[in-house]
Write the structure tokens for this entry.
Amino acid sequence: MLINYIKIAWKVLLRHPFYTFITLFGISLTLTVLMVLTSFLDHLFSSHYPETKRDRSLYIMLMVQRDSARSGRSSGPMSFQFLNKYAKTLKTPERVSIFSAFNSSNAYVGSQRIKLNTKFTDADFWRVMDFDFLEGKPYSEQNITNGDYVAVITDDFRKQYFPDARESAVGKDVEIENIHYKVIGVVKGSPVTRPITYADVYFPYTAPKSNYQRSDMRGGFMSILLAKDKSDLKAINDEFQDRINQIPLPIVENDNKYTYLEVKSEPYAANFIGQILDGGPGLKAILFGALAFILFMLLGLPALNLVNVNVSRIMERASEIGIRKAFGAPIQTLVWQFIVENIFITLIGGAIALLLTSGIIYFINSSGWIAYADLTINLSVFMISIFVCLIFGFLSGVLPALRMSRLSIADALKS
């Protein structure tokens, strides 16, 4: 029976090319936007180069301090000394890395200024992340202990600073903010959409201007706790929270007294979304309002338009419905037939959308709009797209199907 419904749907498509074009255009355009959006969300939150271990990592990104009335609040990254004491000494993680947010710096080639984003890290940063070293190697604990002025640079900065691509950059000198560093390694860069790893130049945390010796609780550093296995994440979080709970309160910093302290270790997506939701009820309302509006515009309006198109398309088949009813076809059978037909048409639109999405993603990746962009249509994106196709086909087909199946035999035969 299902094969027969699909054959009927195909014949209907060929019977009215104009309706077919309008329907497939609306479906493919809508699903293309949704697939590109899904691919971008996958690009933001899933495990990709060089952050391939996100699924077994916990992120410590923010410290929140509040007074006793919880009316005053101070939040931001932590100091290196705080993380070194409360995170680096944890026993459960496989590795713990401490790194800074990226900072702005400048380098010069002759009179040309190169704007840079720089980052200070420990040696474990290169073990937690999976950077592709094109030349050289990362700096080690020994480099940090010695206070060596070394740096790892990206291939993009290498091209700008060392125009001769035939010569190795390893061992050469770079001058950044009037300080000379020896290039120890060259890596393929990370997209700006991955702020944990994004930078043009990476320094040991002992390099000048890192402020790693700052004794306050707050500073400019964050941390990643890498588990040996996903099953260890809860134990790691419990151990870290036990450490935080042992910090004596209240805390006095910069003439402010704080009686409440919160430092979370969370998966990447939860941490990212949590920081937005922690911005207060106004920001929450804006976020959820924007999401609702986007979903309505991308899914609701096209579905409503396709409902109208499908009603017009099905109305022309009223005599067919009347004859089938006259021969005893139940309402459920008619409804199921029209829903299957619409899902079949939607899947054709989805196939067109898949081709369009592949072209758009290729254009985005090669355009340079997002440096090192690597949007893909992987298995998760594909499966989500198929699910959206089915939902979209069901939503835009069920109302016309119910309306036409309830036509009386006399009214249907008159049409």
User: Anything to note?
Assistant: Residues 2-48+283-414 form one domain. The chain has a mean pLDDT of 84. The longest helix spans residues 331-367.
